Structure prediction request, 474 residues.
Amino acid sequence: MYFTEPVDNPFARGLTALDEDRRPEVVDQSRLPDAKPLFSPRVGFNWNAVGERSTQLRGGTGIFTGRVPFVWVGNVISNPGANPNLFPTAAPKPTKRGSVLAQSFDLNAMDPDFKWPQAWTTDIAVDQQLPWAMRGTLELLYAKDINNVFMRNADLVAPTRSLPDGRPYYGGFGANELNPDGGAGIYVIDNTDEGYSFNVTAQLRKALGDATNVGIGYSFTTAKNNLKSTEIASVLWQNQPVQGDPNKPELSYSEFGQRHRIVGDATYTKTWSPRLRTQVGAFFELAEGNRFAGAGGNRYSFIYSGDVNGDGTGGNDLIYIPRSQTEIAFDPVVRSGRTVTAAEQWAELDAFIEQDDYLSEHRGEIAERFGAVNPWYSNLDVRVLQDLGLVRVGGRSHTIQLSVDLLNVGNLLNSDWGVRKVASPAATSPLTLTRFNAAGAPVFNFSGVTNTFIDDPDLLSRWRAQVGLRYFFN
Prediction:
């Protein structure tokens, strides 16, 4: 339920608009979706299959309901488009809350049938007591989207032609809009049910006497959806890397979730006396994909610099990976005072493609959104806890605990260890559109980048230490 009622906007209803299937629709920016009941039935079980919990089966299935970032809803209320009836071309129109509604560069709206995100998730796991006093766990989790989010631009014209790689072309800036209102688009938040995720996790744990516990686990994750997450609603469309129709974004990899991840942990406790205890713990991680941070995070996309598909926005067109020089055209470019010819640029691009595993394996294809994964990395963290028992006061035991955390210990020992790699911006956007030739094919300049990955300067690539002091009274 939305308790804010937007100011009526007949201007929006009068605009020409097409839905994702290019059927005429009426977009009412001033109407939010009606309240809809969303049911989330779930059932779970936990079965002690063999006595003494030596074999335990557990799991469940059901629907989980989430939410969207509220800023996306707020964008609908605050972006009524280039409405001539609003300030500054018309007198200020105060809202019920006393603010003034003004024109905006674009128009944001929500599909009348929009539903908040829901996914049907199923989980099954087995915990098994193994020889040598080990405990094993195997768990499978699958989630299928019922309602997920994607953004479309109802102001986009039908394509005027196709480019040589097969993608549609929409006429270029100024010719890509249905309405000559000077706005950037009619961005409508809508639902899709195409996404899914799958995860499998295996784990072993063992107690080594009363003082030591160790464990190791492996996890594999794959997730696909139709959205590149970002903050502003309109940018959901403008920055969404696509292979073809930007109003029908392809099902492709999510930017979230590491594909392969191995973790290990160990803890050791030594009690010296009733008042003195030492605990040492270590956590090790070996994983593929790095942290999440958009481009250069877990996964990355190869995109053109420039509006190759003519939809009015640059930076959302996934590159075509040429097999030979005949499939791409270059203009000469001047770098550091030297003119680099088309043939030289092709030689550089060809070498760049060959050094990258993803590009070299997908020649003759348009790159996938977040199709490439950042390299493997390793990390070791250590924690030491020292308990210092004090005298009992008033019938209570008082304890001081000193903690020392060392993060990325490898980098502390050697400055070359523990440094993560990420794809550089120059590598993920290596081709800049310069023009279209007489045949309508795009012509490019190559940036000259030679390697995909660079050292990640983030704090995760550096060792850190923190010291803590806690006081307990029981």
In short: The two ends are 46 Å apart (CA to CA). The mean pLDDT is 92.
